[in-house]
Amino acid sequence: MNDDGARGGSQAHSRPADRRSQILRHACALFARQGYGATTVRQIADAAQLLSGSLYHHFPSKEAMLLDILEDFFAGALQRHRATLAATDDPIVALRGLIRGSLTVVAEHPEASIVVVAECRRLAQTERFRWLSERTAQTSAMWRSVMADGVRAGVLRPDLRPEVTAHLVQTGVWAMAQWYRGGGRYDPDEASGLLVDLFVRGIAKPGTYRSRPLGPILGNARPATPAVGIGPDDNEAPRARLARLLPEGAGARMRIGYAAGLLFAQQGYTVTTTRQIADLAGVPVGSLAHHIGSKERLLAHMLTGFFQELLAAFDKDAVARPAPTRRLEGLVARTVEALAGHGVASVILLNERGTEEVPQSELYRLLGAVEGVWTRALVDGMRSAEFRTDLDPGFVQRVVRTAISTSSGAYRGLGVHDVAGLYQEIVLGGMGARRA
């Protein structure tokens, strides 16, 4: 009796191609739920009801499974995007098609989409997955061409930098893989229409928001990374990046926090060890417990600190900026500022929100409070006629927060104030040629 028969019963007679597909489905589900680095071959074999040795008859390694998942994903996405661009010369129709195609892929392959968003950028730095950089460059070029066509045709604002705004929209749409499901309130076609309308028209009603030219805001900005995947620029060595970010005179606890944040963002929370944190922070590993207690407690402290700081800033703005338009400007700015200081929080929240070590009840309470502030601001603006009345506040706030949290740190040549101005202008004023 072979290994499949010993563990899987009648499944031993599955055709090899079917068996490979079954294994890939189980592997993809595990990669999405707990991360590629934290998933073992034994876990995949157990999920597929195989012995580990039998699994190797189908795939030589865990890496080979991931390779198949990513190749299929990008092949499907590129095919959809090429078909979209071949079918129309209208930039707005093409933009909607790119968004619809992306959301369709997310809806049809939710787990693979999460794996791509969470793992792609880190993997692209390794030799085996170097081809990912080429695939992401191909998809990014399609989005840039549509934005550039829109500017030339006069249907998108002439002060836009197509490569920057394409990066913003594309990254925000793909990051929706973390929460968008096609079987929810909006199918991909409906959702794509809402997103095009949001980005092109903006939230504010015509005449209620004094739009600013984007040229001075954008300056020499350019995307720092490809627009698929969430995470920091991995080209800079962790030690050099830490030295650049740390305030002068930072104590051991602060060094540990910054070091942990960089490692969590670059290689994932699950596979980061306390020894790695200690080495990067320049402290003895034995003293880590004195400063942070444990890696789990440190992560919980980082995440709750991020949301508490954000909510405190929102509360101050509620008094200083009571008008809805000003209020929304403040929400955008405070979110960008908080991410600049705690950027790893968004990376972990989006990529590893299922980790068991994080206190889920407290995390979701704080996240719910943030969502509530945004939703109330949008509802108030709709009631006061400052915002369009056809908005879906819950959907809009989630899209905008996703876009900000996944790409606000991904531009070179922009300071925190400029990034806030960029998002305020596009969210409220929109990308369309009409200017208030």
From TrEMBL:
Pfam families for this protein: TetR_C_24, TetR_N
Transcription regulation among keywords: yes
UniProt cross-references to InterPro entries, sorted A to Z: Homeodomain-like_sf, HTH-type_TetR-like_transc_reg, HTH_TetR, KstR2_TetR_C, Tet_transcr_reg_TetR-rel_C_sf
Keyword check for Transcription: yes
PROSITE patterns membership: HTH_TETR_2
Keywords, alphabetical: DNA-binding, Repressor, Transcription, Transcription regulation
Occurrences of domain HTH tetR-type (ranges): 17-77, 250-310
Residue ranges: DNA binding: 40-59, 273-292
PANTHER family cross-referenced by the UniProt entry: HTH-TYPE TRANSCRIPTIONAL REGULATOR RUTR, HTH-TYPE TRANSCRIPTIONAL REPRESSOR KSTR2
Protein name (Swiss-Prot/TrEMBL): TetR/AcrR family transcriptional regulator
Originating organism: Streptodolium elevatio
